[in-house]
Specification:
CATH architecture of the largest domain: Sandwich
Number of strands: 11
Radius of gyration: 21 Å
Strand content: 15-25%
Strand order of the largest sheet: 1-8-3-6
Oligomer: single chain
Structural class: alpha+beta
């Protein structure tokens, strides 16, 4: 009697990304190390196993903007799959990171062959697309105060699966300003304001309280979007805050 063929175990996407294999390498990056730079050849996709990564873009005039801050469990650099020849952003480790690099050929092969992996990857792309749309709406219609509050809440994982992290690692005011799309003096001003209102605490690490949601959910009418990003008003705010927040 012919024995039935044993079915192979289901494909484990997380296990695939946890070990070195054909077209896959695992690398560790120290804080501030560049994973890839804007303009580098785009020939692989990255998966962040551990740590935190900053994606940023520099304009032809040298102005830098932070596109995203990524936590563990996400892909980045996926533009090569659809023919992106060079990197349009730079990826820099914000803390010690473990990153899986998957070649373009290997990622395309597993996407074609493994439905479980394809499902995981599509879910990532849809989540990223939703976040980009939310960021665009936030930038177009909200004041820099609200944008900063939202970014702090996102860094603390509010609104995501799992428990929010009340404490977020050290992040400079320059980086927050690049994420918000404003100047460091405005970020310093609003951090002081949030602290005085009891929404945050900071002494090295920053403690985020759920009450910060009030800034995002309610409009107190104190700031108009059309004047919010005028650089001239920075001089008014800078006098009160420079000495109090330099350590952040």
């Amino acid at each position: 009697m012919k024995q039935p063929l044993k079915s192979s175990p289901p494909f484990d996407a997380k296990a695939f990304l946890a070990v070195v294999g054909v077209g896959r390498t695992i690398k560790k990056y120290a804080k501030e190390r560049v994973i890839f730079a804007q303009g580098d050849p785009s020939d692989s996709v990255f998966y962040l196993q551990r740590g935190k990564v900053k994606l940023s873009v520099v304009s032809p005039r040298g102005k830098e903007a932070v596109v995203a801050v990524l936590n563990a469990g996400v892909f980045f650099g996926e533009g090569c799959i659809v023919g992106q020849a060079v990197r349009v952003a730079s990826a820099v480790a914000m803390a010690e990171c473990t990153v899986v690099e998957v070649s373009k050929a290997a990622i395309i092969r597993v996407l074609h062959d493994e439905p479980n992996f394809s499902e995981m990857f599509i879910a990532h792309l849809l989540t990223r697309n939703i976040r980009i749309e939310e960021d665009l709406v936030d930038h177009l219609f909200n004041s820099s105060e609200k944008r900063l509050a939202r970014i702090l809440l996102l860094l603390a994982n509010f609104g995501k699966e799992g428990q929010p992290k009340e404490v977020i690692p050290h992040i400079s005011q320059e980086t927050l300003a690049e994420m918000v799309g404003t100047t460091r003096s405005r970020v310093s001003f609003f951090l002081n304001k949030f602290r005085k209102l009891g929404f945050i605490e900071y002494n090295g690490a920053m403690h985020i309280h759920t009450s910060l949601l009030n800034v995002v959910l309610y409009d107190n009418g104190s700031e108009q979007k059309d004047i919010d990003d005028v650089d001239d008003i920075d001089d008014i705010e800078a006098t009160d805050v420079a000495s109090n927040t330099e350590q952040t």
